[in-house]
């Protein structure tokens, strides 16, 4: 297998991904935050105890040499060595791509037991199941390709409109006797509006390199009298869909399946936000994707790749995507991944970087111990209107949760986490002291502005992360969450946290109603993937506009796939009770379904849920499951 | 002109340079320390106040777009804008090379007044006089080339030996009807010893890319019956030699001229240590090169490029080349550059990085405030045998000098440097308390080993950097420096500090004697460039070996060019008395010369020193000079 300095693969390809965004007019838009770079010089090492002489050949991405127990030898040539204890090390430098090593040999070959040093730290190597073949170089992505022919071609305003029938992420192949202009669209309206279209590439001839893009339609104007045909290669990283959901409710079934399509499209090497736009890896967006994953892919690697890519190098002075809250979701995501996979090694591999990020957060506290903005930091939380003067309560709620997460992760790794416990206690006291408003029965947004505004955000976090006391929780539910007097959450991004919290506190009717109206609303408008945002009050082409552009809205956006999580976690009620699903519960809420025929992945297994309206059958191909129904617990039979 | 994010050019090419070392057998040996990477995404910015409409075209290394006051437009196309105040910014991303920008236009064009941000800091851009032409891309080095034909070709052991007459740094061109093996050498012995030769490349055919190397000889074995001819392109960065030295002493003249050749060969984009080996940028080696520069090139840019390349990015947790003392020479070099050039802007541009380096040093102090080794750090000082347990006095002397340098640089920039003054005072006290041995009349090497060994190193520093009190200085001179009982300095590297100190304290006889015997000794063995090391006790081919290899010694090594500095600074006595040679002294020691006919550069000028054994004429093409002779000061006339 190919091996590399841990996290370098993700840093390298993460940078490529974040340089993949486009401005209208075939102009590349590299990310607007500082990108960490991979290590350009690395030494790979392993000691072998050889019973007899053996041979091996080292192949590399980059230049360098093999040190075969003191003999310095070239790459690419067979080396004889042994018997006895031998140290093998390989020095590789590469400015063009990540230094990587592949050793072929019966006894001596690259595997996960090698280490690599960047001359600062010697660490277990990074590797991936995608790069087991010598010819699949780590600088490239081994996409699977499906060729699509347009299902429908029609003439519009003197040009050809090609409809591929579904959203693709790939590269068109154009056959035409002269150079043509290509206008891409998620919708017909977008592709055919050549003055407003978001993605286009002009003067495409026989040898023009066409960028990989997200599109369903391609419009070629001014084609009268010429022949033009277009096919398209859809490129994707193969990740198996394991979750299946069928119920008696056809709307719910369609919501699941369109969410699945949305989620698949936004899952490549990494979780990106959207296929047409931004194509960037945003920590806040990815955080929501981690929740969906166990119910549909149960793919452990995409989570890890995304977590590694987002964080970059240990030494840092910036927040992920420049956003302070996004750094905190990143810390929380490590525990999420552990809960899903039980992979302690992964937690150990991220711990130093999590600690370095906590130190950055510690360094920007004010006199009350609250996280505040440094110059260049973005305090986001949500696009909603809110007072952002000084310390923001939502930010402190996330920080308190991070402290609790770090305390638990430290304990897991048997490291000293007393600092986190101590700081969490102090912060909790100060949150209550400075942000709790007894009269309003809520946490206010910030106290330094003097306005004492209440928004839902900090109160949702206070419930979701169990920060508020039981008394306060009750008050918050009544005076904020269930009250119409506090402005509603309007962004689908924050709706995720709201729905998760509502479901956690048992308000499943409200959640189901929202799933059917919000996501069902998009379906009723013909959505084949779920959108970045949906406002039922808008009409026609208004639905396509965002950020001031007529077609700037992404119509396939990862965070809109959350019904899969909400249904899987709360309505089918599948969740681990010990990390890595060593034990897990299935707690289906049958009152919401006429019937069910579902397959939901668990770690190393599949869970089958069958319900015909009367009889419920739950089975699994592995042990550890408990069915919880009407408060009664029974062991789930193994098939 | 091309512009880039400040220091990125040097970081990019510094990495290329440090990946240019070779192991015998055409194997690349990337540097064995962590290399910082350039910023891969950058935004360039400038605001113009346009009287009328104007046009410009932006060219880039990398991909991106132009934001012309809100209009997003492609690179490479002419843009019309104005009149009025307009903000121009250009976003560029490049993983392959440093992002760089060149704007052509009458009013709007790139120059040093632009700024660039890496999304963490917005800084004045970097630029270079080498990259004023649009077609000279910053990713390439605009080498001048001279073609050399071998002066002599002879048959040796059935092969051809080509002698180019002098050391070259370049690429051979081979014409031969079949593929041949090339063995390179600084000497004939090396080239023709095909089992011990350091640099060789086998199986070189018509299309084989040959690496750029340092060599004088090329040997091609087994050429009987075939025709082979070789020429070579010597490649160099054009830097003008301004210093000329002629005296009545032919030996001294030859020492100067061979030192000049040595120095020229080791000066490219950066000061490297040697041409054959290592071809790396070592901070300690470069530090000595900075002293020679004003007496021969007075090239301000090569110093700055080297200083920038060595340091890398602001955020750091490692010492330069992993060596703690090398980080400290780097800090000192900023003041050196200021003394030479008077360039306050340069000091300002390096101050943050110097401060970050000081913070790293502060972070690794022991309870007495002494710098100690962290894991992975290399405490070097010299190859000489010395006790390195715990805090080393030499290291503390350098650190104290750094504190004093930082205090002065802070004052120069009107920044608060009180911390440095305070820490310097404390450190000075502790150095005397822990390392001064009254009985030995010397600073001991370290106290933690309990051995109380005395070496010359810390005592040389104590004198050179004026750390010891006047009383202690006297004792040190007597009991250490001029005493035969303390082991002599044996490495040419540390001999530089010893000679500088001896000359500073007036021991010019000793210095002249050493110049003539040590450097003269190499000349008597036929040296055409000065060697990495010279031991008169060695015989024949013994002179070529080092580090355990028969030909591993570099025979053209930058640090051996120091006679130029010693002669220029102390015997011709040219030195600035105000930064940037605003005023300068010429204090020639005529007793060492029968005659002199010299041209020595000063900032923006040339100084002429003419002495026929009786009459001394000193003139300059600019003002500010003072002739100091027998304690008498006279203004140097301007011609």
Task: Write up what this structure looks like.
Two copies of one chain form a homodimer. The first copy, chain A, is α+β, with helices and mostly antiparallel strands and 639 residues long. The first copy, chain A, contains 14 helices and 28 strands. In chain A, the strands form seven sheets. In chain A, strands 13, 14, 15, 16, 17, 18 and 19 form a seven-stranded antiparallel beta sheet that branches. Chain A has a six-stranded antiparallel beta sheet with strand order 7-6-9-4-11-12, with no helix packed on it. The first copy, chain A, starts with a strand and ends with a strand. Chain A is globular and about 75 Å long. In chain A, helix 4 (283-296) packs parallel to helix 6, helix 4 packs across helix 14 (563-571) and helix 6 (324-341) runs parallel beside helix 8. Helices cover 30% and strands 24% of the residues of chain A. The relative contact order of chain A is 0.10. Among the domains of chain A are: 3-124, Sandwich (Jelly Rolls), CATH 2.60.120; 144-236, Sandwich (Jelly Rolls), CATH 2.60.120.260; 324-379 and 385-488, Glycosyltransferase (Alpha/alpha barrel), CATH 1.50.10; 574-635, Sandwich (Maltose phosphorylase, domain 3).
Brief overview:
Chain A is an alpha+beta fold.
Strand count, sense and barrel status of the largest sheet of chain A are: 7 strands, antiparallel
> Oligomer, anyone?
homodimer
| Structure annotation, total helices of chain A | 14
Q: Quick one: overall form of chain A?
A: globular
Please state the structural category of chain A. Answer: alpha+beta
Question: What is the CATH fold-level name of the domain at 324-379 and 385-488 in chain A?
Answer: Glycosyltransferase
Unreliable runs of chain A, pLDDT <50, ≥5 residues? none
The appropriate CATH architecture of the domain at 324-379 and 385-488 in chain A is Alpha/alpha barrel
Radius of gyration of chain A: 26 Å
Classified by CATH, the class of the domain at 324-379 and 385-488 in chain A is: Mainly Alpha
Number of strands of chain A: 28
- Greatest chain-chain contact: A-B, 43 and 43 residues
What fraction of residues of chain A sit in β-strands?
15-25%
Mean pLDDT of chain A: 97
- N/C terminus separation of chain A: 35 Å
In helices, the fraction of residues of chain A equals 25-40%
């Amino acid at each position: 297998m190919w091996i590399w300095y841990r996290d370098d693969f993700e840093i390298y390809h993460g940078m490529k991904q974040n340089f993949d965004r486009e401005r209208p007019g075939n102009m590349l838009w590299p990310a607007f935050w500082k990108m960490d770079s991979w290590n350009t010089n690395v030494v790979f090492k392993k000691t072998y105890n050889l019973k007899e002489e053996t041979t091996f050949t080292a192949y590399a991405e980059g230049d360098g040499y093999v040190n075969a127990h003191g003999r310095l030898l070239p790459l690419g040539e067979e080396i004889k060595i042994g018997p006895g204890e031998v140290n093998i090390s390989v020095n590789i430098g590469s400015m063009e791509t990540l230094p990587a090593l592949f050793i072929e040999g019966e006894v001596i070959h690259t595997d996960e037991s090698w280490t690599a040093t960047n001359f600062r730290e010697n660490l277990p190597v990074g590797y991936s199941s995608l790069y087991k073949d010598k010819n699949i170089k780590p600088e490239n992505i081994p996409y699977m390709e499906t060729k699509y022919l347009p299902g429908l071609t029609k003439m519009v305003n003197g040009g050809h409109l090609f409809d591929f029938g579904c959203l693709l992420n790939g590269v068109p192949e154009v056959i035409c006797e002269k150079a043509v202009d290509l206008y891409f669209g998620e919708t017909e309206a977008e592709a055919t509006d050549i003055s407003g279209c978001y993605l286009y590439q002009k003067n495409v001839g026989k040898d023009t390199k066409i960028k990989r893009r997200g599109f369903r339609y391609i419009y070629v104007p001014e084609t009268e009298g010429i022949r033009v045909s277009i096919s398209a290669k859809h490129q994707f990283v193969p990740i198996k869909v394991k979750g299946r959901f069928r119920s008696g409710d056809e709307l719910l079934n369609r919501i699941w399946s369109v969410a699945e399509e949305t989620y698949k499209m936004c899952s490549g090497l990494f979780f990106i936000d959207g296929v047409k736009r931004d194509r960037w890896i945003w920590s806040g967006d990815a955080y929501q994707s981690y929740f969906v994953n166990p119910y549909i892919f149960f793919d452990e690697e995409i989570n890890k790749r995304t977590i590694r890519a987002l964080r970059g190098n240990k030494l840092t002075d910036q927040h992920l995507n420049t956003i302070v809250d996004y750094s905190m979701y990143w810390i929380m995501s490590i525990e999420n991944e552990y809960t899903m996979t039980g992979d302690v090694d992964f937690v150990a591999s991220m711990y130093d970087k999590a600690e370095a990020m906590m130190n950055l957060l510690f360094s920007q506290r004010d006199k009350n111990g609250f996280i505040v903005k440094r110059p260049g930091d973005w305090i986001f939380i949500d696009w909603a209107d809110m007072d952002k003067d000084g310390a923001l309560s939502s930010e402190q709620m996330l920080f308190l949760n991070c402290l609790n997460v770090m305390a638990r992760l430290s304990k897991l790794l048997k490291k000293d986490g007393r600092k986190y416990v101590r700081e969490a206690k102090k912060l909790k006291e100060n949150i209550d002291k400075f942000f709790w408003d007894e009269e309003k029965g809520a946490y206010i947004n910030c106290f330094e502005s003097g306005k004492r505004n209440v928004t839902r955000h900090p109160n949702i976090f206070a419930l979701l992360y169990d920060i508020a006391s039981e008394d306060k929780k009750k008050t918050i539910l009544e005076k904020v969450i269930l009250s119409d007097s506090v402005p509603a959450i309007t962004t689908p991004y924050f709706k995720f946290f709201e729905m998760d919290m509502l479901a956690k506190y048992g308000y499943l009717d409200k959640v189901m109603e929202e799933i059917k109206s919000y996501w069902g609303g998009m379906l009723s408008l013909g959505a084949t993937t779920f959108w970045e945002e949906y406002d039922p009050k808008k009409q026609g082409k208004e639905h396509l506009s965002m950020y001031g552009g007529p077609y700037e809205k992404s119509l396939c956006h990862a965070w809109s796939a959350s019904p899969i999580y909400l249904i899987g976690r709360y309505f089918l009620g599948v969740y681990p009770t010990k990390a890595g699903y060593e034990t897990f519960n299935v707690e289906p809420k049958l009152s919401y379904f006429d019937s069910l025929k579902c397959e939901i992945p668990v770690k190393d297994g599949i869970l089958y849920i069958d319900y015909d309206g009367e009889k419920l059958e739950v089975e699994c191909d592995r042990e550890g499951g408990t069915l919880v129904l009407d408060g009664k617990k029974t062991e789930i039979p193994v098939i």
